[in-house]
Amino acid sequence: MNTLTRAHLTEKIYAAMGLSRNESAVLLESVLSRISIAIAQGDSVKISGFGTFSVRQKSRRIGRNPKTGKEVPILPRKVLIFRPSQMLRDAVNDAPGGDADRQGQAH
Amino acid sequence: MTKSELIAELASEHPYLTLADVDRMVGVLFDEMTDALARGERVELRGFGAFTVKHRRARAGRNPRTGEMVSVEEKSVPFFKAGKELRERLNEPTGKSRNGARP
Question: Which of residues 65-84 of A touch B (CB under 8 A)?
Fold first, then answer.
């Protein structure tokens, strides 16, 4: 399956903005870094039309090593939740995206 | 933080760009990611996380209010898994430190 990476996104920014490739890469990094900083501070980040990143606090619980059956404490921690916007959900769902549907597409 | 706050922060970080430029750039970015997911592709941003599309099979559900049986159709949903670095930053005592999302 195809994967979109930083290189692709940099290229798109480059093409759309008329900046240098290097500036485009710096900008992309800057976007990710700003979002990461907000999240790391426990802020939620809402990108309308795309989705919301939020931080959820998980409390301590007793887990079990599935291999040995031994009980191990899972410490309280924070986890990142992404809730896709309705627009993104619709875009993904209306697409011919299903694994089965993709067989007819060009390779 | 909202999208417009993000755009304002980016514009002050990169003074050679106007607010309108940054707005357009952020738009291009999230549009491209949306389009990739709509094509069923994954978006992988090392250190930050990966967006993928998960497929949910059709199932028999229930209207939680009435208890009535309804059939839920097969669907695809966007999914995000945070990258290792971001997950670790989330659980650092200070909440910040370390610059940039990239290793």
Answer: 77-80, 82, 84
Question: What pTM does this model have?
Answer: 0.82
ipTM over 0.85: no
> pLDDT tens per residue, chain B (103 residues)?
999 999 999 999 999 999 999 999 999 999 999 999 999 999 999 999 999 999 999 999 999 899 899 998 899 999 999 999 999 999 886 544 444 444 4
CB contact under 8 A, B76 and A93: yes
Q: Do B90 and A43 touch (CB under 8 A)?
A: no
CA neighbor of A30 nearest in space, from A16, A9, A48, A50: A9
Domains and CATH numbers, chain A: 1-40 (no CATH), 42-95 (4.10.520.10)
Structural domain of B73? 48-86
Length of chain B: 103
